[in-house]
Write a structure and sequence with these properties.
The chain is of the alpha/beta class and about 650 residues long. It contains 22 helices and 24 strands. The chain is elongated and about 115 Å long.
Length: about 650
């Protein structure tokens, strides 16, 4: 049955009667004019006398039949001034059905009041476009001059003069929406584009004046209030150039969403947002083999630890989108687990969500979870990750990051989990921090377990760098310092770091999980490293401020455990290809299970309040490439260690509990 087909339930009230009367008059007028014009064209505007006497009767018949067809297709139930493609489709079906009736009558019935065949076909085209014109004019009147538009116009302080950078399809959609919604108080006055072929042209009546240099030359004459960058495919470098120029001109700038967001719907003014630092980093979009990820996850029970954290919560979102049978959210902070549970419920995924408040160091609790739910995939994201904080309490970092991972891995073996994916870090490579070293210990534990012998569980680790906007990361810290008026603090002018968006990082983690056979350490392609001082300067500029004038940058010196730059792999690791260009696989000789177990036992038997230097030296026995910072002069200064702890300096071996 055609869309909108059916006999309406008539409810009489004065609003409905008035609307139906207006529609009857407008539709009848349009269709009567259509059939009259069809006759005129049929006879080259010289209608013979014999047709002049019947044209009025035929016109009345045609209009009445078409009105009945419009009634059947519910075109008297619609609101007058709302008109879209669905309404046009129903008008097309209504007119086509009526004219089809006349063609049948002419061919088989010889009915006198049926118009000639050629006139019927012409009338079909005219009547359809005539009715569409009526409805489009009513919609245009509502959008331009209706009560709602007038109220919005009166409430707006002034119509802002808008400049748009980008004359492509996104820019055109943006201009079209600005024009169609004048009540928003915006007026597009100029467009700028890098393509010379578009210069001195118009886009929906708005002139394309030239490149960005024309914006600099004419922004005072144009009196622009703000500029929207409608170039979602522009590189980060080009976007930085445009933003720097707009900041220099003291023009407020915003941008459209990324292409990934745009493909989900049309450009709307409500989606315009300020330019963010991730826009300027210019990372290429990552193509994922979603079929393989879905094959891995769909219909299975998946357990995610640290489910309320930055990485864990994004893992929950992406895993849930691939329809697991059950998703176990393990998190020791009830506030965070409540937030991600409510978000997933709101997204409506067809998955059983099980929020579990638990600490991975609580062996009995975790064993009960594995026994009750029998997870098939484990993504282990729970960890202590803050470098300076863990430098002062390395034993806690060791307990959570190494012992916690080991216990989760042993439970996975005991309950025959298919895959165990450990979220590691680039700071585990030649570590100088306790956090990085304990992550490296966890990697060694998994490799030793994998090398112990054949088993069902495949262990793998995924390393990546800093995640943009994650809790405790540098960007939220810089934003807070800028909001407070500065200074923005950096540890060293030459410090560089790799950055990824959390969505990109987690997508590649899932992709890595589909490729592992056990024992691999996957490293994500993190692009080019970024100078932290450049990041600070860009954030200051995005805030419309000037370095050295409005905000100072203060160099405080490297903190204990920090590096100037991060590395990709250890010298002892060999590179192996993977099926994805953004994922590298490094393989090294796995340590023996006995050696790793002995080291863990010795460290585990240390007291939680043990001297931090002593704990770091004990970790160094397990991770020889670890170069810890050791406290001297009553903990007031730090210096790099020059040696490793001897076996005599370590506590006696005990049982790992």
């Amino acid at each position: 049955m055609p869309p909108g087909f059916g006999f309406p339930i008539i409810v009489f009230n004065h609003h409905r009667i008035r609307r139906v009367c207006i529609l009857l008059a407008l539709y009848a007028l349009a269709m009567g004019a259509s059939i009259w014009l069809s006759y005129q064209l049929r006879f080259d505007f010289r209608v013979p006398d014999e047709f002049r006497t019947t044209i009025v009767r035929i016109m009345v018949t045609v209009v009445l039949v078409k009105l009945v067809s419009l009634l059947v297709f519910r075109q008297f139930d619609t609101l007058l001034s709302y008109f879209g493609l669905g309404d046009a489709q129903r008008l097309l079906l209504a007119m086509g059905s009526a004219d089809f009736v006349f063609l049948v009558l002419r061919y088989f019935g010889g009915i006198a009041r049926a118009p000639p065949r050629s006139t019927t076909l012409t009338d079909f085209v005219f009547s359809f476009f005539g009715l569409c014109m009526v409805r489009a004019c009513l919609r245009l009147y509502r959008e331009r001059f209706g009560p709602a538009a007038l109220r919005r116009s009166k409430s707006a302080e002034a119509r802002q003069r808008l400049g748009i950078v980008g004359a492509g399809s996104v820019g055109a959609a943006l201009v079209r929406e600005v024009i169609s919604r004048p009540g928003l108080g915006l007026r597009a006055v100029a467009i700028f584009d890098d393509d010379p072929a578009k210069w001195s042209t118009q886009l929906h009546g708005v002139p394309v004046l030239g490149g960005i240099d024309k914006l600099a030359a004419r922004h005072r004459d144009l009196a622009l209030d703000k500029v929207i960058i409608a170039m979602p495919s522009a590189s980060g470098m080009r976007l930085r150039e445009i933003v720097n120029e707009l900041n220099r001109l003291h023009l407020k700038c915003e941008t459209v969403p990324s292409y990934e967001q745009l493909i989900k719907g049309q450009v709307h003014l409500s989606t315009i947002r300020p330019v963010e630092i991730q826009d300027l980093l210019g990372r290429d979009p990552v193509n994922l083999s979603t079929d393989r990820i879905r094959e891995l996850v769909e219909g299975r029970t998946v357990l995610i630890t640290g489910a309320g954290g930055s990485i864990g919560s994004e893992l929950c979102r992406q895993v849930a989108s691939h329809a697991p049978r059950r998703l176990l959210l393990v998190e020791r902070c009830e506030v965070q687990i409540f937030q991600i549970e409510q978000e997933l419920l709101g997204l409506g995924f067809p998955t059983e969500l099980v929020p579990l408040v638990a600490d991975i160091l609580d062996g009995e609790r975790m064993r009960d979870i594995f026994r009750r739910f029998r997870p098939q995939l484990v993504f282990h994201a729970a960890a202590h990750k803050h470098v300076p904080m863990m430098e002062h309490q390395p034993f806690e970092a060791f307990r959570n990051n190494a012992i916690g991972t080991m216990r989760m891995a042993e439970l996975s073996v005991e309950f025959q989990v298919d895959r165990f994916v450990f979220i590691s870090t680039d700071k585990a490579i030649n570590p100088t921090s306790a956090m990085g070293a304990t992550k490296r210990v966890a990697e060694l534990c998994l490799q030793a377990l994998q090398g112990r012998g054949p088993g069902r569980t495949k262990f793998m680790a995924v390393r990546f760098g800093n995640v943009l906007g994650s809790s405790g990361s540098v960007i939220p810290t810089f934003k807070r310092q800028i909001a407070e008026g500065g200074p923005v603090t950096i540890t060293h002018p030459d410090v560089t770091r790799y950055f990824m968006t959390v969505r990109e990082a987690v997508g590649l983690v899932l992709q890595s999980a589909t490729q592992g056979h056990g024992g691999e350490i996957f490293v994500l392609d993190m692009g080019k490293s970024v100078k932290i001082i450049d990041l600070a300067r860009q954030l200051i500029e995005l805030s419309g401020l000037r370095e050295g004038v409005d905000i100072e940058i203060l160099v405080t010196g490297l903190r204990p455990g920090e590096k100037l730059f991060e590395e990709i792999n250890l010298n002892t690791e060999s590179l192996e290809p993977t099926g994805h260009p953004k994922i590298m696989c490094f393989v090294s000789k796995a340590p023996t299970w006995d050696a790793v177990r002995q080291g863990l036992d010795r460290l585990r038997d240390m007291a939680p309040d043990a001297d931090p230097d002593r704990v770091k030296r004990a970790i160094q026995v397990l991770v020889p490439e670890y170069h810890p910072y050791l406290a001297v002069a009553a903990g007031e200064a730090c210096a790099p260690a020059t040696g490793v702890a001897s076996q005599d300096e370590l506590p006696a071996r005990g049982a790992l509990r």
